[in-house]
Amino acid sequence: MGAPSDTSRYAKGFDIPVRGDTITADRYISQEFMALENQHLWPKVWHLGGMVAELEQEGDYVRHNLGTESVIMIRQADSSIKAFYNSCPHRGNRLVLGDIGGSDRITCGYHGWQFAPDGVLVNVQDPDDFPDGNPCGKVTLSEVRCETWGPFIFYCMDSEVKPLLDWLAPLPERLKDYGLDNWIRVMYLSADADFNWKIIRDNFNESYHLPTIHPELSTFINDGLPDTLFEMYETGHNAMWMKGHQATTRNPEFHTGDVPSPLDDVARAWEVDPADFNGHTGDIREAIIAAKRRLGPERGFTNYENMSDQQLVDYFHCTLFPNLTITMSPEQCQILRTEPHPTDPQKCVFHHWVIAPPVKGMTEVETPIGPMPLEWAENRHSVYGDGQSVGYVADQDLSIGTSQQQGLNSRGFSGCILTHQEKRVQRFHELLNDYVHPDVSTDIINSDQLR
Ligand SMILES: [Fe+2]
After folding, report:
1. For residue 205, how far is its CA from the centre of ligand 1 (angstroms)?
2. Residue 224 belongs to what domain range?
């Protein structure tokens, strides 16, 4: 990978070295690579399983399916949360079939075995008919590590992986001032999609596609390369700061002309007159920072006071290894991720959540699929392409995902050619390579140079 022409535009951390492993199509297509991920990747990373607030009382649970695996997270009597594999120890039947529920017993639908919320078997049919005696009180569900960060529940299937907050570093610290703890998930969409899960990971690890795929963002998000800050962290996660409330510097006329729409409406909503900024529209960002500081608290945005100016108006787009994206604005947190299909490497499951602060007096939140009530939303699952939106911008990304998967199947494709600003894509694949080839020296999987 050659040096960029102007290194000053890259944030600290962007100098983390990459090897230049060639990114070929097999990892998006082959059963062999999928099997390596199932063996070496998914069991060894932390997964976002649900939200703490969904579990109000003892016995409440959420379920998370991941490829062929399924895990349930259950509120305990002492208010802690335990996670278990969603599999009956009797004959392996999946215990919980819904996304969310609650009961003082988890009952297997096959032979009626019952488990307490702490995973202990408490009731079976014909308890005296076991060669080793009644199994109640002895048999338990198989437990999975479970920890929380802010409003989120995570689980991990491996005992060696570091604790959750160390794993997530430095993002809990970087996101602390948004005050996420009491935010409400107002949108929860998922969809089966016809591409490998990494297609969208790559997409979220670069902003190079924005002018082509999301041109409508350019009037209120500055996607100009010199204005975008990329960050890479030692823990393998990445982030990007995109200037908000400012038009792209890729189109100078947006800055020297009148304030473009919908930025003008956003300004008016904060009592800033866009006419005052015609000819120098880039300055409107500072005016909105001042207006948010002045008007935010009385409008119920109590979390503004702890935020930096950057957090008040910009988008902080965090891509956590391997498959979780958290995009922050002061009024909204979007969670986007793709998860592996149980059997087909050329398919995945896409998730899109919107989480919003409980602003006093607010009853509705503007989301990527339109206004939603400011209250908890349950999962709405669809198949991508059936006409149900998974979010306006996400729809655009998913449409490319489908055509990219098709193109990757061509025998004419021989490996990615990346720009410097796509270094996060390169790094993601190298971390992945290290996971799926744990016994192979990095020298062997190195290619000579990033092509
Ligand atoms: Fe995109």
Report:
1. 9
2. 7-40+168-245+314-445
